[in-house]
Amino acid sequence: xxxxxxxxxxxxxxxxxxxxxxxxxxxxxxxxxxxxxxxxxxxxxxxxxxxxxxxxxxxxxxxxxxxxxxxxxxxxxxxxxxxxxxxxxxxxxxxxxxxxxxxxxxxxxxxxxxxxxxxxxxxxxxxxxxxxxxxxxxxxxxxxxxxxxxxxxxxxxxxxxxxxxxxxxxxxxxxxxxxxxxxxxxxxxxxxxxxxxxxxxxxxxxxxxxxxxx
Length: 214
Prior knowledge:
With 214 residues, this protein is an alpha+beta fold.
């Protein structure tokens, strides 16, 4: 036989008490876990800026103000973009009731000498300064450093720096304003913009799948 059983180390009352404590901890951690799940699961928003003039623009900085009941969350992506219980800071449930099964092949099997060898060298990614910054304040303010823009050129941020969340009361558009400063121009350019709201994301279905409830 390759599997042995270790007798139960807990009484049934101790097991039930552990479940009760875990349930309390889980309920307390749940609100924060929902926000962390959003930060791990939803795609970030990016900014696009087009130079519609026939002039080469230098050192362009654009500031956006998005109005209404809207907020921004910083994405936190796990390995393979799939969050774990630890990522969501959820307490692990107690071990199942019953004796502990021990796989003797793992305990007394041959040594894994490969684990003693040095791992592959993986150089760290070069640091790239973010070109956008997002701030909450009842609404959302964004600062974008677009750099130099050639005539008709398109700038697109790729920082993955924010997930925009709107309330259920929001209409189909988020209204906002923008202003821009450009090196060599002693004036501020300004205008308005509308951001289309996408379809609602059903977090209930996603989280039920994450918890293996569906």
